[in-house]
Amino acid sequence: xxxxxxxxxxxxxxxxxxxxxxxxxxxxxxxxxxxxxxxxxxxxxxxxxxxxxxxxxxxxxxxxxxxxxxxxxxxxxxxxxxxxxxxxxxxxxxxxxxxxxxxxxxxxxxxxxxxxxxxxxxxxxxxxxxxxxxxxxxxxxxxxxxxxxxxxxxxxxxxxxxxxxxxxxxxxxxxxxxxxxxxxxxxxxxxxxxxxxxxxxxxxxxxxxxxxxxxxxxxxxxxxxxxxxxxxxxxxxxxxxxxxxxxxxxxxxxxxxxxxxxxxxxxxxxxxxxxxxxxxxxxxxxxxxxxxxxxxxxxxxxxxxxxxxxxxxxxxxxxxxxxxxxxxxxxxxxxxxxxxxxxxxxxxxxxxxxxxxxxxxxxxxxxxxxxxxxxxxxxxxxxxxxxxxxxxxxxxxxxxxxxxxxxxxxxxxxxxx
Length: 417
What we know:
By secondary structure, this protein is of the alpha+beta class. Helix content is 42%, strand content 25%. It has 12 helices and 16 strands. The strands form 2 sheets. Strands 7-6-15-9-14-13-12-11-10 form a 9-stranded mixed beta sheet, sandwiched between helices. Strands 1-2-3-4-5-16-8 form a 7-stranded mixed beta sheet, with helices on both faces. A hairpin with a 3-residue loop joins strand 12 (311-321) and strand 13. Helix 3 (82-97) crosses helix 4 (128-135) and helix 5 crosses helix 10. The mean pLDDT is 93.
């Protein structure tokens, strides 16, 4: 076995075919990181026939003392093979020690269990990777639920995933909960349209994500990130807008309201001839109520049109597509247009794209790991039917143990992180 630097094409082919492949370990992500000033390189183990048996996209950044080397979503390796895991770890340590490394951190794309909507364990997964990484000299820090809104700055503790296996464009909607089916149906009735953005529209996308981040109290990615991601990922990233044309929407609502008028007049005539006709009275109330709803929508939409213009952006999102999964990364919803349920249509659109591409997993990504009702985003994601997954956690191994110990001691004494 030889540990060596890999070419982009070698690494890319291996990652795209690997069961644990992820955007975090992709050549596209490497290009984004490098363009934004990070150090990032492809490393791997090859056998005597120069066949790759394990690989890692390894990022690095300077600390006050030494360098942190990190593998997010990796390495891509058979974690059941303890000897291979130890060899990969040892060779990575040797390499990074030659380049001022202080500590090595692996964040494998693995899961320990899945949980149902109440937070109960649904399925336990093979955790041999934990045992083998510990045996390879790593210290293990398991995933924990978010406390007081403080998310980990290192790794995602919990994510929500939906299995697309066996679903088709015709059966997808039936796999949702009643709430999501209702929302997607209403959104289509409203005439909401999905559109993929071009590069020049990213500042507008950024404007909306910034507003959402400010409202929810978290930081947004800079425009530079979105632009470099657009270029690096090309067809493997989708920036989506859900839009509504108020003029078309109002015409549709007017037509629906007008279509009820003949039925209402017929029922009025019936009641005039037979005032005690309970069935006709009930139907008249139902149709009148429907007509009033249409009129209310027309009035509200006309007011919004006067305030915001003829066409508006209701919601949007950014997604990665990989052979292994569709990844839901960032999104926004314009609060004044929540009544149109646009986020539901966006999610359905991307799931349909995943099904079309033969992708088996739809990853909604981050949730808090809390099931006490405090995670509002979780309820939205659960409406599409899936499970919360507890991720594999963090694994750290000192590259220079003595120096690493001294640095940690100094941190404790000074109170620095």
